[in-house]
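User: Batch of two.

Assistant: Item 1 of 2:
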Amino acid sequence: MWPGKWALLFLLGVLLGVAWPATWLSWAGWLLSAIVLLSLLPWVVSWPWTRPYRLLIWLTLGLAWSLAAVLIQDRARLPVEWQQTDLLVSGVIVGLPERTETGWRFTFKLDQEQTHPNLPGRLRLNWRGERELNAGERWDLVVRLRRPHGNLNPGGFDYEKWLFRHRIGATGYVRDDPRNQLRAKASAWSLSSWREGLRARIDQALADRDERGLIRGLAIGDRSAISDQQWEVLLATGTNHLLAISGLHVGIVAGLAASVVLAWWRRVPRWARVIPSQKAAAVAALLAGAFYALLAGFSIPTQRAVIMLAVGLSGILLARHWRPVDLLLLAAVAVVLIDPFAVLDVGFWLSFAAVAIILFLLVGRDRVPGMVHSLILIQLALFVGLLPWTAGFFERVAWTAPLANLVAVPLVSFVVVPLALLGTVLLLVPGPIGAWVLWLAAVVLQGLMWLLDGFASLPIERQLPAVSTAALLLAVIGGIWLMMPRQWPARWLGVLLFLPLLLPRSQLPPYGYYDLLALDVGQGLSIVVRTRHHSLVYDTGPSWRSGSDAGERIVVPALHALGIRKLDGLIISHEHDDHAGGADAVIRRFRPDWIIAGQPQSHAFESEQCVDGHRWEWDGVIFETRFADRARSANDASCVLKISGRPMTALLTGDIEWLGERLLMVDGRLEADLLLVPHHGSRTSSDEKFLDAVSPSLAWVSTGYLNRQGHPHAEVVKRYQARQIPLYNTAFCGALRLKRDGRTYCFRRDGYPWIWRHRVDVELFSENYRR
């Protein structure tokens, strides 16, 4: 049997298991039992009719393998009853802890014996303060935890998937408590301590260099010190894969080791008679690659690279002839056998797709191009072949990637990486030699980043709106068509298959309609309003102590995903950070034509004062601002926006409380079908008379999951329930979208029920939801 055939079916089964709907998990155990029994049938019973089904057994085995991992991880989540409770836990810091603006962020692996039952094995914790934390230390910590939960928005980072993929069953923070005690320091011989020591030496050697984070990423796989600006340049030029330990770098190190051993081995015939030189070189390559992976903490990308290397060298070590496609598929099977959740990694798909493209381009062709021609051809082919993948995963296209990689790949692989590794090793030797070598690597990187920054600053639109699966599949076919041999007829037709991907058509609302999207920004507010030819953002979410903000992390990616390139207007309801914290990022990226604010004097950017009764029309939709001039607080002086159009009238209320509500009621004109619950549902808002004046049939509220303020308050919830007004919360739904028929699309409930999603009841609130 062709090995690639069963490997392909096994991988397909693993994919089906990971895509298993969460709503069907209760049936997964029964399915696993049935799969095991049915898998034995074709092998135990030799009836002729069972033979055709033996191939399908590999599909069911892949499904069983991934479903078993899914069930184990799903049951390893924090029980609901342990949320928001102080817990004393014991464990060890795994990986390298990351220094943040306010303290530390780290992964904590719990000891098997814990005081509290059913706790997950791995936690993601934050700890404020100036204390020093080191990898491998054992601690007793008092923590407050919650189930894995993340913001859910169009174009946003799927934090819940990241937690599930890394088998983290709870997140939280360390409480200030005298019971927090260091039980044991890390062993000096442990891998984590060794890597941490190297990190400290690199930081000391390159303390004044901006390239310090890049060198750390290349030498020990620690990317925590790479700045946001550097990442943006790398992403914009498609070179981000080079500035961290990747499969390419593991392959380069393995290749250098193999070349050295091969040249040396052939000089000693006595050794070559005992062990053939090719096998010795293969062993050396595997050991060098594994050592480099260990230096990077044996992270998931390096594990994948070492497995691929081992499978690739198996033909030499086992004296077997493997076809390249078989080796690639067997390597993929080996990766998912060790970790079935590897298919949730973007790097898994990009790395295997890149190798497949190179094999498809070079193996079995009649003409073998020269080295320079091959390098150019490979970069162009990788750009074309990976374009659908990068568009689907990142919703952006790095148009300068072929040219940038043509310079960056040889420079980083053959100059920077050897210098970074040599310098890091020499840091263990007394004297300044290691620091000098690292400084030289940093100078080369400085020049490269200067060049890449020039590419990134070109006025080229790189963002793509969210595209359909059909457009992605057509682009994949188009890429294969373009890379066919020269004899293939009409290869240029492959370009046409890219058009649905590169020229996507956005779903613009018809004349007289508007789209309304409440983003999930945690404890804050940001709403996107869009008509046929205009777009507006109402508030921009909070900023955070880490130094980032919802504007950069959530609002900007969501606007890109919606296909919005420029804003016609921006309204900042009032001065508080949970509504205005992300304004600078939104203004910088989308340059709104005008900005209205409740308190313009409180912001560094230029804005106009919100005026009561100001009206304008966009594409048949009427907008009107309401403002309480006599308000005494910033909350009550929020700029309120009323939108009159189809499918319903909406009232966006900012943070007004009972006084602001009463002041607005004086002039009337508050009736609306959809009400944004004032002040996130605080006890001092949503007055009975105000609800009667608005008379909504639907209500949205924007709050953070398990927020400390306790929003929305139970009394406020009861007021809406008494009027039978459906109440949707971003804390449970994620983003909220108003559909054309007037119903609310709840992203967490109405989207595909992925197994990693935090499953909560989102129909209506009750006090039980807020445990």
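Item 2 of 2:
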Amino acid sequence: MTQSRNYRPDIDGLRAIAVMSVFLHHLNAVILPGGFIGVDVFFVISGYLITSHIAEEIRNGVFSIGKFYQRRINRIVPALATVITMSVAVGFILLSPADLILLSKSATSSILGFSNLFFWREYGNYFAANSTEAPLLHTWSLGVEEQFYVIWPLLLFAMFKVGRRFAISTLLLLLLVAFLVSEAGTRMVASAAYYLLPTRFFELMIGGLLALLSKNFIPSSNVQSNISAFFGFILVGGSLFFIDKATPFPGVWALWPCLGTALLIWSGLRSSTIHRLLTLQPMVFIGLISYSLYLWHWPIIAFLKYIGIEIDLYVGTVVMGAAMLLSWLSWKFIETPFRRSGGTMPFLAVLTKRFGFPVLILVTLNAIALQHHGFPERFSPEVGRLEAAQYTRPNELRAGCHVPTALFDTPPLDRCRLGVPKLKPEGILLGDSFANHFTGMLDVIAKHDGISLMDYTMDGCPPILGYDTGKADAYSKRCLLRNEAAYAQLEQYQYKKVILASNWPDSADVLPLLSVSIERALATGAEVTIILRNESIENASTCAIRNAMYARHTECRRPPRGQPAYFEVIRARFPFVRFIDPNLVICRENECNPVLDGMLIYRDSAHLNDSGSRLLGELLLKAGVGLVSANNSIKH
């Protein structure tokens, strides 16, 4: 996102496409499902411009790593620090105590350049529902860039000084390796691949290598320039509409917008008819303010979502206007003046005043927020009481017993016990993250019934032999392997009780596969218990809290959606299979409530928190439901 010494307005036009793609996607993903690839366009532009500058300085013998980072600080930090500080200030007014602490932590990670790591650890999937309310989520891409520029200048300097003759061929080989790492990472650890530098490295490298190659290789004619610009527009434009959040990304799918961007940059080395579209004045203007626009647009959207304002056409128009105004002011009075004045300052002064001081301020604010527990006195005591349960996360409490897909081959661990401590567990729990969130409930019930259980669960993997989840290979194939291994465990250890739990899919195709799975479990001599899925409730983890925060009366209860119809067939076919229906206590009088006995039982719109799960166990026991006497009714 840095401007070259030899200014090219067409690149600003390309920046405009990138930032508006991201902006429109964030306003409404239906409009532009692949709009998030605007970030990839930015990566290629950044790699091209900064590498052009570094290479020129190395050739002229004036490259200085200190001067390089001085330019980066002057370019990136002033506007970033402004947006982060304003976001924290607004967050102090609007956010709950726990969410203010989360924002403060993200603010520190953002200014230090590792927010991509923070958001990956905190939210996992970039498209997770709860991530849409994180005001600084978009700074993950700045983290990737800044980490890249710790390595790239040193790599280039070494290539030119030690082996200039083989520099291009060596970098091409490294590019191939980086691309293969991205593709492998996307297949194996998809959520990490989206955020982290190793799987994004090749995108910035494409821009960097283009800068080196185009020094002596430019379009030979306007026809060649037009053709490359045309295909560049096709690749970028097609990516905007044919890539979406379900696409395995980055990897090979990120290659298309990156190559399209490279073609558009290269074609601009010789002016062409098609390419002049990028130099239209409105495009250039948006490109000039694109960095500030990228910074400002997302906090506005995230805060509106947080307070429950729907972004329709009218609100979206207002958001766009407000973001444009703030971005122009930021560009005019922060970006431009700081970049100009910073060029004449000593490096140490820039490092301390322009980077060290904002870091000190934001670290201090984070420490204060942590020390004061997010300032709960801003709201009624009920807010803190409701939030206390929300952040008891079964997936973290049972880490190792419940694993992500990447650890699909993890064996059952002896420490993964529920219920009564015994030398050998009598039963085992199999299933997905919904099985995991029932561990608190099962722990309470198993202790009451004098049973010892092993829990053995994995993200996104219903305990159904042969069931294809329909997700990318990184998930679906590993789920198939995991289930085979899990059912082999039943045969090896001859558990007395087998408990199957999941966010059971609705498809009728599940019936024969689930029947085979139950038969295989029963063949080991085990008693089989199925825990039905709990009801999903829109805004289950936030509705009651926001009502208490803002003294509003939004209805948080929802009617039940019921269970898959095939369970009636399963019940008739396997009369000795027990069923536990958590909705017997979650749903009453045809309404499902995310708050029971004053406790918030969900951690998102579908998953239970551990405190809520344990409360369900207690309430089910009172209703006469247990592992030795399960209620065999199924609600529709």
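The CA atoms of residues 70 and 347 lie 6 Å apart.
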